Amino acid sequence: MSSFAGRMKEYPNMSLDRFDRENLHARAYFLSHCHKDHMKGLKGPLLKRKLKFSLTVKLYCSFVTKELLLSNPKYAFWEDHIVALELESPTLITLIDEASGEREELVVTLLPAGHCPGSVMFLVEGAQGTVLYTGDFRLAKGDASRIELLHSGSRVKDIKSVYLDSTFYDPRFYQIPSRETCLHAIRGLVQDWVSRSVYHTVWLNCKAAYGYEYLFTNLGDEFHTQIHVKSLDMFKKMPEILSHVTTDRATQIHACRHPKDEEFVPASRLPCGSSASDGTPLSIISIKPSTMWFGERTQRTKVIVRTGASSYRACFSFHSSYSEVRHLPAYLSVCLGLCLSASVCDTLLFFLFSDKRLPVLSPANQHLPQCHSYCKKLWGTLNDIFGIKSQLCSLIHRNLLELLFIGKISKLRDDMPATNTDTTHPGISDHIMKDKNCTSEFHKVSV
Ligand SMILES: [Zn+2]
Ligand SMILES: [Zn+2]
């Protein structure tokens, strides 16, 4: 979940992936991809009014993102204000202050982000130095070295800051199997099932968001079939995806969703209600692509785990793993501008609670003195963390962050006696997050 506030300290006149609040004053907008958490304010009435009276304000994105955005009528008012840019082709953009006429020139380059259709990173070069805004990305180690425009000649460009997707900047996700490994495993499971009979059907339980198309196109190719989806509208201008999906329910692979209930998980029926024409009941398995779920396992698991009689979880990530995220700024030799998902505190809480059981520890608990002393220490540390968390959107040097938190927390945790009580910590996340006005999504920690 992106919690980036929209502006980079080097170039505050441009807003990226955030379109409300102070971003309303931006001179140019940039959208890295079409996921809702990167589009806050994009269809807001204030921005709509600003566009009406502006001659110069544009939204820059990739061609695919433009198509995806305009396939939703709520964003149709952007049509005359979108400039789609080619990938890997540096473009001079002039930011103009419409009141004073002041101009600022930047060279912006879109780099492939490997996250979902149309997703890009923005490389910005100008008077304040070169910075990279990644948006959400999935790049394997070594991918950055193949991006020519991050280099000048044989050297890496001098990059001042990287604004990084930190969704899985969390040691629980130290390594996530590669996309190919995950696809290979899913392909094996599908093959084994659909080859049994024409009544054997697979339902891919994917969320309603872009990013799974990689799965559809590859499975479609492999099994010479099309995948049943709810609607083709968003793929209208993307022939390479369109040819692999269908609204015809007579197929053995479905990724449709229930029209009314997004959470609907059928046991013996498909969300679209499709059945065999001769009345034979279908044998259905569901495969739920997940990353978070795998990160939460304390034991190492396989890429595919059976979770019920006919349900499976398959590891699938369109975000980089912890080690991949760390690799990028290290490769570019820059400090880490941790700014997007601010999941560090969640990580720390996980560190604290992952395999040790604690007695009551709750912000609502007024009786801390009665708790064990390590509880008090812990509480103090949590306060430190959350005090600093509110500032996480600004740049924090990676080493400082680690020194401050990870060492401290690991030590506390090591000092803690393990207990076997079944006590949980009701509402800890909610309370702390509310107290600190934190807007980033908190992953519940169950103890
Ligand atoms: Zn995304
Ligand atoms: Zn279906």
UniProtKB/TrEMBL annotation:
Gene3D superfamilies: 3.40.50.12650, Ribonuclease Z/Hydroxyacylglutathione hydrolase-like
Domain DNA repair metallo-beta-lactamase: start-end pairs: 239-332
InterPro entries cross-referenced by the UniProt entry: DRMBL, RibonucZ/Hydroxyglut_hydro
Coiled-coil blocks: none
Annotated SUPFAM superfamilies: Metallo-hydrolase/oxidoreductase
This protein's UniProt keywords: DNA damage, DNA recombination, DNA repair, Endonuclease, Exonuclease, Hydrolase, Nuclease, Nucleus
GO MF terms held by the record: 5'-3' DNA exonuclease activity; damaged DNA binding; endonuclease activity
GO biological process, one term: telomere maintenance
GO cellular component: nucleus
Source organism superkingdom: Eukaryota
Presence of keyword DNA damage: yes
Localization (cell): Nucleus
Chief localisation class: nucleus
Family: Belongs to the DNA repair metallo-beta-lactamase (DRMBL) family.
Protein name: Protein artemis
Species per Swiss-Prot/TrEMBL record: Oncorhynchus mykiss (Rainbow trout)
